[in-house]
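## retry 2 of 3
previous attempt timed out at serialization; input unchanged, resubmitting
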Amino acid sequence: MKKSRSVLLAIGAFLLANLKWILGILKFSKFGTTIISMGITLWAYAAFYGWKFAVALVYLIFVHEMGHVIAAKRKGIATSPAVFIPFAGAFIAMKDMPRDAKTEAYLAYGGPLAGMIAFLPALPLYWYTQDPFWGLVIYLGAMLNLFNLLPISPLDGGRIVSVLSTKIWFIGLAGLGVMLFANPGPITVFIFIIGLITWYNRLRGSYQQKLLQYEREKIADFQQSIAKWPALESTWDIRMQMNAEVNAINQEDLKKFYVPFLQDKKRLQRDFKRLDKVYVNRKWELFRLWEREPVLYYDSDPNRPIPSDALRDGERAAQERLGELDEQMHQLTTYYDAPASTKWKVLAAYLGLAAVLSVFFVYAQQILHR
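## retry succeeded, writing output
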């Protein structure tokens, strides 16, 4: 073991000494990040568990992530290269978000399915050699992908069952809570916290819809107001009005805490006031900027003023925010909608894969205990 670690340290020292030219080569490669992070992860696992275990584990994780990449490519969704994190796994980032939960479930399912296929060659290898190492490969593959099928967001299982009902996330959280009680670990704690936040946000969906709708109304009022400014003969009255509004709302105490669910009416009114404050101040800042902006005319014709850059920028920012609000509203209202036929197919595929992986998991345990 000491000799093995000495070799690993020597290799690590060599790589660090030559890191500059290695990075220089890899940075031109689309998969440079994947190769570097995979190498670091491989070295880290090998330092603690040996090369055979490290290669098997990194291989299983890599194929799992490639399953997501292939599924995303089939749906026309661009992804980043896979990034490995020692003792935490790997991840890919989607450059485009799925249009609905059905598509997201398809992308999520690709990982565990590919992960299962990855360890299937270990079956004939074990039958032929009777080497328990291949049993370990089966065990690792089945365990990793079964864990990923837990119905908790952000795990694959949580993203798959979201087509059925996001209420299932609570069942997954309860199951993971039992696992944490029996065998606590930093990764499972992290997943539990993220899952809890995601589940809570979903529960607050109707509350968020009210806020989004109110902000849409504030933006509409903002757009109507700035559209009238160029036609004003005098800005004095509107300046005095907005100045009074800004002073009044900035003096209000909007930091009071209200208990979610139990005090939602008061909480909602407070959050409405916060949005009022944001858009009153935004409109006031834009007005002051517009007032100081020189008025230009086409061909020096006083009847043909050139549109204000400040107002155009304000309108553009408002439109961009409206697009973001529409996307969030879609996420809350129709994103998780799916026909019954789709739900049945997803349920069958999910339970079927979980059942097959469970069989392999039990079989691998029997191999390792012989």
